[in-house]
Write a structure and sequence with these properties.
2 domains; alpha+beta; three-stranded antiparallel beta sheet; 5 helices; about 140 residues
Amino acid sequence: MKDAGSFPITWFANGLSLREIQPWFPLPSNLINKGEEWIPEIQGYAGGLQTKDEMCVQILAYYPRMKNLSICISIQSPSALQTMTNNVTFTDMDQFKQWLHNLKWTPELGTKWQEFYNHSSRLVIYGAEGHFQIESIDSFP
């Protein structure tokens, strides 16, 4: 096993394979004194989407319950994104990158994007057992 570095992005930048990346970080020799124990505590990350963003899963899995739900994705509709980005499409990555690099972030723009995220129309893609549906929803409540 070799030292993969202290920050995960360096693992891939150094060309390590997934097999070589181990959850191993060498500790300083003076961290634990002789006779002491070190017990690592792992805390779960409570991140994720807000409840309204997870409604796709909640509605389709429980009301009524859909057996074998294999995919459930909620995304902003492409037409709503095009409106928000002044008709920059996501199919032309060079154009999108240029638009993104030229964007000047301000608190007002952040608020505008948050409002867009909260209230824009979405595409909901869901399916079970090989049968998939795509539906457009004007907005989540």
